[in-house]
Design goal:
Number of helices of chain A: 13
Number of helices of chain B: 7
Number of domains of chain B: 2
Number of strands of chain A: 2
Helix content of chain A: 55-70%
Order of helices and strands of chain A: HHHEEHHHHHHHHHH
Radius of gyration of chain A: 21 Å
Strand content of chain B: 5-15%
Shape of chain B: elongated
Strand order of the largest sheet of chain A: 1-2
Order of helices and strands of chain B: HHHEHEEHEHH
Number of domains of chain A: 1
Oligomer: heterodimer
Largest interface: A-B, 14 and 18 residues
Chain lengths: 336, 209
Amino acid sequence: MDALVIGTIIKVVLVLLVVSALAGFGTYIERKVLAFMQRRLGPAHVGPFGLLQIAADGIKLFTKEDIIPQNANKFIFSLAPVITAATAFIALSAVPLFPTFVIPESLPLIGGAIVPSIIADVNIGILFVLGMMAAGLYGPLLAGMAQANKWGILGSARTAVQFLSYEVVTGLSVLAPIMVVGSLSLIDFNNAQTGGVGSWLIWQQPIAFILFLIAGFAETNRTPFDLLEHEAEIISGYVTEYSGLRWGMFFIGEYANMFTISLIAAIVFCGGYGDLGFIPGWLALLLKVTFFFFLMLWVRASWPHIRPDQLMWLCWKVLMPLAVINIVITGIVVMI
Amino acid sequence: MHEEIIHTDSTSKEKQNYVMLELGSTPAYGWPAFKQVVKRTVNGELFVGLWITLKEMGKTLFKGGKHTTMYPFEKMPISPRYRAIHNMLRLLESGHYRCIGCGLCEKICISNCIAMETRYDENQRKEVSEYTINFGRCIYCGYCAEVCPELAIVHGGRYETASEQRASFSLFDDMLTPIDMLKQQQEFAGFGSVTPNADAAIKKTPLAY
């Protein structure tokens, strides 16, 4: 077989395993950070610093009874978590992760395989990623409607309203940097910002960056906008009737989406995987992604939820006009 | 009549000394409303919240500001007035149990959970042959400890009462001070006594803000 094909398969397996593990590790980090911000300890008993709590939770999820409610549409009920998890991982296939490297020839079977930086180097990378994340809205939507539960219905109604609205803001906010760079490929975005911190697009497009972050929080269902499963109002929203591994797949999907949004924010606005002074590129990207991930937890610990009507007000009356104005100004500047 | 009511109302308001906050009027539409939106949007209030949580995280991590009690390994001192599983005390001189079998605790128990049987022993003294407390019924009201003329039954501090058997804590011998622990038997501090860490827990009342 072609060296690149083997390398791509290796990369696919690596991304699947690493991101699934990172989703588990993300829950651990989230619990720890939230605990520290609330002067608690967080998980502390299972393993050193509670690190094996992830394994304990995993075992619990795997061995839990798989309940499908009596009146639920069983096929769609089982399909919905797969959609969430699958779209989250498919979105990651067009995101560059770590530099390309060649496996040494001395290894048997896979020796000489070229592991690419990006699994599918499509020339419309960012469009593909955003599109896949948008397709992910079918997960919560179908889950809520298939489970014959009124909280689920409310959750899926909110999914439709929230994801569709903020899809507009994400698209419009990313449009301005796309106009500046003149390409949809994430690698071109990275190459456009290789001149150190000063060349980052965040300085040229601060409004687009903030809008993208806000919309990203809404699309990954993170705290100021986690109306889909807001516990005080609608129990658990679209995951009310889910248990065990199916619920776990929603969870993995959500955390994979958080990583994707962090990655896109880092690549499009914050210099991508270019070297940062003495810090090598891969470490710089990792640090940026970690920062954005931490920001999500930080915001969750600090800010309250907003009401659905405030969410809509914010989207259509503030963010979308700002995004459109930003595009118009960017267009004029680019033309000049 | 009507005027009088209004008058008393207004005087009471004066006495309570309310302060009205200067919030200004809320613009409903147009340019003022837009200005308010912009003002609130670029306001840094949200970052104040972020800064507070970050500060708390720093305190927790580096300055030992954790509030967690590592419960099974570390316990808070409880008040001597705490009413948990009962203790049966012994006489310090002879080591004999203090209970004289008067039956007052059984009589006063409002949830009928104390059952006792007594008989005369060979010295014609009252002897307790059966004494159980049904902890499934006991509401830990403390009447039995209060009515006991000999301070024989008191409430102890054993609050971890999960067990495999209903009868685990409730037999007379379980509640009685073990004879080799007689030296360590604590006298019931009585109602109104303070917790061991009361001095440490005292804080100054903030009188001025």
